[in-house]
Amino acid sequence: MSVEQLITEKLIAALSPSHLEVINESHNHHVPPNSETHFKVIITSAAFDGKRLIGRHRAVNDVLTDEFANGLHALSMHTYSPDEWAAQVAVPASPKCAGSE
């Protein structure tokens, strides 16, 4: 199973998102081809209602502890409550890595 699939399955099981995108952005970084080390997660969950950003990020990081221990290097997180997602116009673009081609 790919890292992308693992991340997706774990976040669904733990946070029951109403919206989830897991995007492999490794190609934007200076890593070997077909790497799965850099991801962007866009997640909307009722579990984030009333939580500050740090609490939301901790919740996601806690779910992905094994992935970080086994090669996941970077995770860009965009975490929203359902009301915030409904009002969202666009998700910020990820910056290019200084070493990317």
What do you see in this structure?
The protein has 101 residues and is an alpha+beta fold. It has one domain: GMP Synthetase, Chain A, domain 3, CATH 3.30.300.90. The chain has helices spanning 3-15, 53-63, 65-69, 82-87; strands at residues 19-24, 38-44, 74-80. Strands 1-2-3 form a 3-stranded mixed β-sheet. The mean pLDDT is 88.
Give a short synopsis of this structure.
The chain is built from four helices and three strands; from the N terminus they run H-E-E-H-H-E-H.
Give the H and E element order: HEEHHEH
Supply the CATH superfamily name.
Answer: BolA-like
- Quick one: CATH class? Alpha Beta
Spatially, the strands of the biggest sheet line up as 1-2-3
What structural class is derived from the secondary structure elements? alpha+beta
Q: What distance lies between the first and last C-alpha atoms, to the nearest angstrom?
A: 27 Å
Major sheet description = 3 strands, mixed
Radius of gyration in whole Å, from Cα? 14 Å
CATH-derived topology: GMP Synthetase, Chain A, domain 3
Shape assignment: globular
Low-confidence stretches: none
Architecture in CATH? 2-Layer Sandwich
The count of strands amounts to: 3
Q: In DSSP terms, counting alpha (H) and pi (I) runs of 4 or more, how many helices?
A: 4
Residue share in β-strands: 15-25%
Tell me the number of structural domains: 1
Mean pLDDT: 88
The percent of residues in helical segments reads 25-40%
Supply database-style keywords.
101 residues, alpha+beta, GMP Synthetase, Chain A, domain 3, 4 helices, 3 strands, 35% helix, 20% strand
